[in-house]
């Protein structure tokens, strides 16, 4: 669901931090360059502005390459197991930007705005939350993970009912990080996963009913994302017999603290933003 050009903005938010100072700083710099390009593209179309815009987008392209190189060196230094898959994602994003740069001369300013916004909002933010967070999660020890895991106010989408249900999902999952006797561990894991699965389905049902009530235009796409998260939980349950306790906690954190957080702050916020935008029209 594309935003109208006049409403487009690129904003760094604290929930995009992956808690690696160097990588977070480079991500913020990319946002800064993208905002610079976006502000130029909103000005009148003349040769001087077009040339300035090309230089800024080229600067963005160069910095993305530098950042990806630094990130890959970091992954190598910590022996990150999904390095090759992550490199491929980087390559695909570089290809997207290469394609944009090659088409600049034939694009209207509004098209350039939309392409920049899509790259940052739909691809880069998704990459940060879904992929870059996996890197830090993998290298975080379990004690620190247990301390940091849970609902945070920055995840709020400012809808009390939906926020309360999101918080409940985190509260159920957080129980997996509490210590119990070894003999009780298997039973506890099964109980938590059953409750998490059931509550997630209930929450998604409520959210889908709400989207239908307000005639949300991206209802079908959003419902499909719900199905994908439920599928991840199913796959996780199937893998349980092969996971040791440490892996279980990290894999659960990956599903909740990455997939669900991304869904909340990127997709669920779109619902609320759509509601606000339509309220302003009335």
From TrEMBL:
CDD domains: Hemerythrin (cd12107). InterPro entries: Haemerythrin_Fe_BS, Hemerythrin, Hemerythrin-like, Hemerythrin-like_sf, Hemerythrin_metal-bd. It comes from the Bacteria. Keywords: Iron, Metal-binding, Oxygen transport, Transport. GO terms for molecular function: metal ion binding; oxygen carrier activity. Residues 23-135, 162-274 form the Hemerythrin-like domain. Belongs to the hemerythrin family. NCBIfam families: bact_hemeryth, hemeryth_dom. This is Hemerythrin (Two domain). It comes from Arcobacter aquimarinus.
């Amino acid at each position: 669901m594309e935003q109208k050009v006049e409403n487009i903005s690129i904003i760094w938010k604290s929930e995009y931090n992956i808690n690696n100072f160097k990588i977070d700083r480079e991500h913020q710099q990319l946002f800064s360059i993208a905002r610079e390009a976006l502000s130029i593209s909103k000005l009148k179309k003349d040769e001087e502005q077009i040339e300035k815009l090309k230089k800024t987008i080229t600067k963005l392209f160069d910095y993305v390459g530098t950042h990806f190189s630094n990130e890959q060196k970091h992954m190598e230094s910590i022996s990150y197991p999904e390095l090759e898959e992550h490199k491929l994602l980087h390559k695909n994003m570089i290809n997207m930007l290469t394609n944009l740069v090659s088409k600049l001369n034939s694009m209207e300013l509004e098209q350039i705005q939309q392409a920049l916004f899509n790259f940052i909002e739909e691809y880069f933010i998704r990459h940060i939350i879904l992929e870059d967070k996996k890197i830090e999660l993998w290298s975080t020890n379990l004690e620190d993970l247990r301390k940091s895991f849970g609902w945070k106010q920055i995840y709020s989408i400012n809808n009390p009912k939906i926020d309360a249900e999101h918080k409940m999902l985190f509260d159920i999952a957080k129980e997996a990080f509490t210590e119990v006797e070894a003999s009780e561990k298997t039973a506890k894991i099964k109980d938590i996963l059953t409750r998490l699965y059931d509550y997630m389905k209930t929450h998604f049902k409520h959210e889908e009913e709400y989207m239908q009530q307000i005639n949300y235009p991206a209802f079908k796409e959003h419902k499909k994302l719900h199905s994908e998260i439920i599928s991840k939980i199913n796959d996780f349950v199937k893998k349980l017999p092969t996971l040791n306790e440490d892996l279980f906690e990290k894999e659960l954190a990956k599903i909740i603290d990455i997939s669900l957080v991304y869904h909340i702050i990127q997709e669920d916020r779109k619902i609320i933003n759509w509601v606000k935008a339509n309220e302003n029209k009335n």
